[in-house]
Write a structure and sequence with these properties.
The protein has 19 helices and 30 strands. It is α/β, with parallel strands linked by helices and 634 residues long. Among the domains are: 143 residues, 3-Layer(aba) Sandwich (Rossmann fold); 128 residues, GMP Synthetase, Chain A, domain 3 (2-Layer Sandwich), CATH 3.30.300.30. It has a 7-stranded mixed sheet with strand order 5-4-17-16-18-19-20, sandwiched between helices. The structure holds 5'-O-[(S)-ethoxy(hydroxy)phosphoryl]adenosine (WTA).
Length: 634
């Protein structure tokens, strides 16, 4: 189903709400099914949080991403790979070539004993073999769980253990701008606490020497020699798990968001083609790493399901210089460009010359995702990248939603700066008051919740369904709770305000404040800590940590610096560089209620610099501590 006009949008929306079974049934028709469904929509949306879509159907996602296109698009480019170093030659894969590579990788996994349902952790650079490995898992029915290759060994180990993964796919190393990182050795460190892992398949990328543990580790290129280029696709049930993706919530431990086969497929395809208004010759570039959900749905599955060409980029926007994005767009004639506000803000802070050397004439549509895009960044993007002729889609969604939920359809539904816009067909957003009642009418603000199931909805949290139920479906019975606050403007367009729970969004990446506190508290010199977010010009939100030291406040500046560095080291080891606190304030105490609860509201205000409006602090356990914290504010 492809919506091309505003009246078509309204009609589709209405049908999707009034008769979701008919609407999504029609959307699902064109796919390759081994067996059709018996019911489009079933299960219990809320409060059980157990929706089912296309129950009874049998399929394989890679048959839909690859085999289905071979007859008509066999020689069309499926993937373009642009390496980290602009002097290294790019690579291109047609649908036929990608199909072969996926089959070969799938055979390597099968030859190494992988069985349907096994969990495979993938910790890799953004290279074609990452895409191939993910699809190879889907081909044979293994559950992939991609861990962004910036997470630490501890974070990998947590995920391997939680997913009870028995296989890991990795590479010798990765390039990130001017840096090289020995990825395999991070995996080795992680696996010292994961004895259940049977095999590690290592892809050679940098040509670095790595330690291969006999009996456990194998080189992909050795294994590939005996692997055929065809591989039958495993027949999967509609609700078999496809992947687990770990994401942070308001509790300390990241949870494994599970998506299943058929619903995710239909949702990824529908949202991709309609939001970006994809045409046959488009080259789509989603800059997100496949380690995040955006990379899953709009770097990989969405484009391949649509038979599109997707560009995969190994590098960073500022290497070798801040014109790299724009150079890549010109070089590969990118027509749809999808990135994050934090990237736009970091580039707009640099001289415009970096942009002006490129024509950007191939661009047709621009997208933004991951956090609210501020008006200034929106206008810069529009004017300097889109040359005021490319519609911008500001796409709101979450790991849990599988795909885009609220966004303009490019050039069709309204696109207003700082508004995500109207809901996609099938999405019924509501604003809730604190007591859970729906707020009617426009020009209103509230908690953003979704009133009915959609095909891409989270199915469970791995190994612990109760957690999914508690997090998303019980706060407001009858709804899926997003954790975001939103405003519906006078025209009914949604503006996302930000998280209303203890989650902070740093450069589009989610972290629980409790998760970072847990990490900081691993430092042997720390008694207690409290983490809050604060507005940050480039990252959207920065991480502000208040920390109580075991031996009292360090007296000299040198001691303070050493202590702060050691806290950062701890966080990097526990989670990864991406969760590094931006500011650390050493304190002698934290503002607590008499029952011992930390008053985060006060800490947030101090971090934001709003020290004039802290409210009544006299009821605190130790009111004096507030004055000390204000005085020592960073
Ligand atoms: C935020 C990323 C405003 C939001 C796809 C959400 C956004 C969280 C937008 C999910 C947007 C994402 N405007 N906020 N266009 N897109 N967010 O799971 O707070 O990494 O809850 O999924 O990012 O982050 P996640």
């Amino acid at each position: 189903m492809r919506i091309r006009t505003l009246p078509e949008y309204h009609a589709a929306y209405q049908q999707s709400v009034e008769n979701p079974a008919a609407f999504w049934g029609a959307c699902a028709e064109p796919f390759t099914w081994r067996k059709k469904w018996t019911s489009v929509l079933g299960g219990e949306f809320s409060p059980a949080g157990r929706s089912t879509w296309f129950e009874g159907a049998r399929l394989n996602l890679t048959e839909n991403c690859l085999d289905r296109h071979l007859a008509t698009r066999g020689n069309k480019l499926a993937l373009i790979f642009e390496p980290n170093d602009s002097k290294t030659r790019h690579q291109r894969f047609t649908y036929r070539e990608l199909h072969q590579q996926v089959c070969q990788f799938a055979n390597v996994l099968l030859n190494n004993g992988v069985e349907k349902g096994d969990r495979i952790i993938i910790y890799m650079p953004m290279i074609p073999q990452l895409a191939v490995a993910v699809l190879a898992c889907a081909r044979i029915g293994a559950v992939h769980s991609v861990v962004f290759a910036g997470f630490s060994a501890t974070a990998i180990a947590d995920r391997v253990q939680d997913a009870e993964a028995t296989y890991v796919i990795t590479a010798d190393g990765l390039n990130r701008g001017a840096k090289q990182i020995p990825v395999k050795s991070v995996v080795d460190e992680a696996l010292t606490t994961c004895p259940a892992v049977r095999r590690v398949v290592v892809v050679e990328h940098l040509g670095w020497p790595v330690l291969m543990q006999a009996g456990r580790d194998v080189w992909y290129h050795d294994e590939a020699k005996n692997a055929a280029l065809t591989c039958p696709a495993e027949e999967m049930k509609a609700e078999d798990p496809l992947f687990i993706l770990y994401t942070s919530g308001s509790t300390g431990k990241p949870k494994g968001v599970v998506h299943s086969q058929a619903g995710y497929m239909v949702w990824a395809d529908f949202t991709f083609r309609n939001v970006f208004q994809v045409e046959e010759n488009d080259v789509h570039w989603c800059t997100a790493d496949i380690g995040w959900v955006t990379g899953h749905t709009y770097g990989l599955y969405g484009p391949l399901l649509a038979g599109s060409t997707s560009l995969l980029f190994e590098g960073v926007p500022t290497y070798p210089d801040a014109g790299r994005f724009w150079e890549v767009i010109d070089k590969h004639h990118v027509s749809i460009f999808y990135t994050a506000p934090t990237a736009i803000r970091s580039l707009m802070a640099l001289p415009l010359d970096n942009v002006l050397s490129y024509s950007l004439s191939s661009l047709r549509i621009l997208g933004s995702v991951g956090e609210p895009i501020n008006e200034e960044a929106w206008h810069w993007y529009d004017q300097h990248i889109g040359k005021s002729r490319c519609p911008i889609v500001d796409t709101w969604w979450q790991t849990e939603t599988g795909g885009i939920m609220i966004s303009a359809l490019a050039g069709i539904t309204p696109s207003v700066p700082a508004r995500a816009g109207l809901p996609l067909p099938g999405v019924q957003p509501v604003l809730l008051a604190q007591d859970g009642t729906e707020i009617a009418g426009n020009d209103q603000e509230g908690y953003l919740a979704i009133k009915a199931s959609w095909p891409g909805i989270i199915r469970t949290t791995w190994g612990d369904h109760e957690r999914a139920r508690q997090t998303y479906f019980t706060p407001y019975p009858g709804y899926y709770f997003t954790g975001d606050g939103a405003r519906r403007d006078a025209d009914g367009l949604y503006r996302i305000i930000g998280r209303v729970d203890d989650v902070i969004n740093v450069s589009g990446h989610r972290f629980g404040t409790a998760e970072i506190e847990n990490a900081i508290n691993q430092n042997e010199h720390v008694v207690e800590s409290a983490v809050v977010g604060y507005p940050h010009d480039v990252k959207g939100q920065g991480i502000y940590a208040y920390v109580i030291c075991r031996d009292g406040l360090p007296t000299s500046a040198a001691d303070r610096t050493i202590f702060e560095a050691s806290i950062i080291e701890t966080v990097v080891a526990e989670i990864g560089k991406i969760a590094k606190p931006d500011k650390i304030q050493l304190v002698s105490g934290l503002p607590k209620t008499r029952s011992g609860k930390i008053m985060r509201r006060i800490l947030r205000k101090i971090a934001e610099g709003e020290t004039e409006s802290l409210g009544d602090v006299t009821t605190l356990l130790d009111p004096a501590v507030v004055a000390e914290i204000v005085a020592g504010r960073k």
